Amino acid sequence: MVGSVAAGSAAVLGGGPAGASAALLLARAGRDVHLFERQEGPHHKICGEFLSVEAQRDLRAMAFEPLRLGAVAIDRVRIVSGSATVEARLPLTGLGVSRLVMDEALLEAAQAAGAHLRRGEKVLSIDDCAVHTTKGRFEAETLLLATGKHDLRGARRPSAERPGRRADYLGFKMHWRISAGQEAALGNAVELVACDHGYLGLQRVAPRVMNFCALIRRDGFTGSWPALLAELARQDHIARRLDGATELFARPCTVAGLPYGQVQRPADDRAGLFRLGDQAALTAPLTGDGMAIALRSAALAAESLLAGMGPADYTRRLRREVGAQVRKAMLLHRLASLPLTARLAAGLLGFCPPLLGRMAAVTRLQTTP
Ligand SMILES: Cc1cc2nc3c(=O)[nH]c(=O)nc-3n(C[C@H](O)[C@H](O)[C@H](O)COP(=O)(O)OP(=O)(O)OC[C@H]3O[C@@H](n4cnc5c(N)ncnc54)[C@H](O)[C@@H]3O)c2cc1C
Q1: Among 198-207, 312-321, 348-357, whose mean pLDDT is lowest?
Q2: Distance CA 39, CA 166 (A)
Q3: Does ligand 1 come within 6 angstroms of the Cβ of 278?
Q4: Buried b (16+ CB within 10 A) or exposed e, 283-301
Q5: pLDDT at residue 162, as a whole number
Q6: Model pLDDT for residues 213-253, shown as the tens digit of each residue
Q7: Ligand 1 centre distance from Cα of residue 82 (Å)
Q8: Is 199 in the pocket of ligand 1 (CB under 6 A)?
Q9: 50 in ligand 1 pocket by Cβ < 6 Å?
Q10: CB under 8 Å to 224, separation ≥6 — which residues?
Q11: Which residue's C-alpha comes closest to atom 27 of ligand 1?
Q12: Of all residues in the chain, what percent are helix, strand and coil, respectively (each to 5)?
């Protein structure tokens, strides 16, 4: 540690659910926390925007109520593959929530708890206890890395450097203004629709607003968003959902080349760095548990730090809590990405829809009381 660094100070790098909630918890515990977020203001993020019951629980444990964000109750899951549709009640009610709204509210809560929010300040690199940003250099006793999908110079995820670990998927997200009829047809379900080169998730996130989030293998991408939409709309179900609907962003949010399935090992990392959220464990999007993992990692990191534990102990605890769930989610993700298995699964589940609810339960993050 550098002599001039304030004892107990922390720099949290990245203001998504992981970073904002870690900053909130540490600030509430009386720590001097600086939270760096590169975006100047509220912004959309690629996400299916399904807030699982585990994520809701962790938010409420911080006295943060997700229902006040205008979220929509999601209590059913509908799997669509070709002409087959299977529907079941979810074991527990999730929420459809706009990430722009939720992430902003979490940043405000962290700030209200006393964290110094440094907006529009992009972290360029880190070394030892120093953070180099677009606005200068900053030192803190502890660094918590929560930049999500984005690797940072001086702290790349070890597995991200190994070729072959990155599945070549492209992610797309768009909000659509839908008609009253489309809203009624979508109802309170999250729809998972298999397509030739991946799958997409559809659900409501606000009155008359549908989130559309697709994960498509690169070899199936025809080169442009309009071309992708045209191809997807060859499926009757997708065509019905999009017919006459209006795109609400100028262009979709996109992401590519993420190392899905990667869970950090204690030995992988440089000493002194707490990795949170997607930086620590990147689960398959299909199960809608990424935000739950982000929130859990933040709670565990704050608790470990305040108890005087180091990053290696924290990482071991996190692996124990999320490792199995990520493995199961990846298995489902691989199956759902293959059109034939997706079709077979939809057919089989058609005989016993309650199995679908059981499947949804099995892939959830297990909660330790
Ligand atoms: C296609 C897809 C669908 C998904 N669907 C769901 C779903 O339905 N439900 C669910 O729970 N999860 C879902 N996820 C996962 C979920 O989005 C992530 O797990 C979650 O956002 C992780 O939170 P985080 O705080 O780690 O990172 P992020 O939410 O990505 O936040 C990182 C923050 O760091 C900031 N940042 C990045 N680099 C820098 C820098 N250099 N300096 C300063 N700030 C920086 C970013 O601006 C951002 O605000 C999905 C993911 C994908 C790819």
Answers
A1: 348-357
A2: 26
A3: yes
A4: bbbbbbbbbbbbbbbbbbb
A5: 46
A6: 999 988 888 889 999 999 999 999 999 999 999 999 999 99
A7: 30
A8: no
A9: yes
A10: none
A11: 148
A12: 40, 25, 35
Instruction: Tell me the C-alpha distance between 204 and 244, whole Å.
Output: 16
Predicted pLDDT of residue 1: 41
When pLDDT is cut at 50, 70 and 90, the band that residue 169 belongs to is confident
Q: Does 45 contact ligand 1 (Cβ within 6 A)?
A: yes
User: CA-CA distances (angstroms) from residue 304 to 24, 176, 233, 317, 348?
Assistant: 15, 41, 48, 9, 44
Q: What are phi and psi of 191, to 5 degrees?
A: -105, 130
Q: How far is CA 40 from CA 18, 69, 283, in A?
A: 18, 21, 28
What is the whole-number distance in angstroms between the Cα of residue 181 and the centre of ligand 1? 32
Tell whether ligand 1 has an atom less than 6 A from the beta carbon of residue 14.
yes
For the whole prediction, is pTM greater than 0.90? yes
With a 6 A CB cut-off, is 190 part of the ligand 1 pocket?
no
List, in sequence order, every residue forming a beta bridge with 72; answer none if it has no partner: 96
Which residue type is seen at 145?
Answer: L
Residue of 38, 103, 202 with the most ligand 1 atoms within 8 Å of its CB, for mutation? 38
